[in-house]
Amino acid sequence: MSEIPITRPHFTGEEGAAVAAAIASGWVSQGPRVKEFEDAFAARVGAAEAVATTSCTTALALALHVCGVGPGDEVIVPSMSFIATANAVWHCGATPVFADIDPHTYNLDARAAERALTARTKAIMPVHQVGLPADMDAFYALGERHGVTIVEDAACAIGALYKGRPIGSLPSLACFSLHPRKVITTGEGGMITVQDPAVAARLRRLRAHGMDTSDLARHTATDVVIEAYPERGFNYRMTDMQAALGLCQLKELDWILERRRALAQRYTEAIEQIPYLQAPYDPPYAQRTWQSYCVRVARGAPIGRTGLMRRLLADGIATRRGVMASHEEVSYAAPDPDAAPSLPHTEAATRETLMLPLFPDLSEEQQDRVIACLATCLLAHAA
Ligand SMILES: Cc1ncc(COP(=O)(O)O)c(C=O)c1O
Q1: Cβ pair 89, 77 in contact under 8 A
Q2: pTM
Q3: What's the pLDDT score for residue 1?
Q4: Of 22, 164, 240, 323, which has the fewest beta carbons less than 10 angstroms from its beta carbon?
Q5: Residues whose beta carbon lies within 6 Å of some atom of ligand 1
Q6: Is the CA virtual torsion 108, 111, 112, 118 positive or negative?
Q7: Does the structure show a pLDDT above 90 at 382?
Q8: How many H helices and E strands in the chain?
């Protein structure tokens, strides 16, 4: 086990009592706390409404489904993303089409997405990779020009700003993850932000088997309610125990974001002094969440990315490879190599990047150990 983990969720100690109160209330599936959490989440990110789900993956699949994505359709996604982005498209019976990234931001490049459009393209799903907003204006312009829907994979982006506007407040459906590796957590969980109340109502029905009334509404009704199922749905319900945890986490969000930002700045200042290492690009149009700190090992460095990860691990420091390239996994590899997409920026970035430990309770002493180890590995070789 590493002495310095890659991440660790931040808890204050109040969460146990909040979850215990949910259990004591008898509401252990979806009930009043989920509603409260949805309202608080929507208020925090400036959305008209928020709809809770079991994960970001199910949120993405549900969002695509309400946008009419189904069998025979194509959805353009970055290959450079956690594989859940592509899997969510597949869950709808549609085909993910991989396009390349911008080599600086590592986010889906709108021009590459445009080149990947076909007559079957139904949607484009930019990812706010590791919490850095994609260039949404370019995607909205593209969507309008070609009549395709935009859905945001905002798994890592709660608290991020795009041109001063919070992710979650933009016109597209945005899907967030509440997995422990993300900025805040409910253990497992997801959230869709939505500006149209009619779409929010449909999402709420669809996540609960397509039922036209919620358990909470039936519980509080003063007359008998015979529910109906106007369309087929799913079971993507968050529990009240998770929502109780989420409500505690939301209170900590500003502190968590500030702490992540301060630690990221310390990393950047140090990494700029270490040869062969490149700090992440921080574009002026966005405020990122620093869900991960992704550093690049320059070509020609005396030690490669994976060698560096091994040296850090030997010193008790956990790292992870940079964001994966989904099109290189067996599950998405083109059966005919000649038909494989050409994604040179993705392929280079996935091989040359690694994630350093970054989480709110990482101490400066621990961070200094990570920096010292990086410097030893690269300066010693450079001398
Ligand atoms: C970009 C991206 N999309 C989707 C997901 C899936 O999130 P979840 O685990 O909540 O389904 C992740 C999780 O790592 C992610 O990083």
Answers
A1: yes
A2: 0.97
A3: 65
A4: 164
A5: 55-57, 81-82, 84-85, 127, 153, 155-156, 177, 179, 181, 190
A6: positive
A7: no
A8: 12, 14
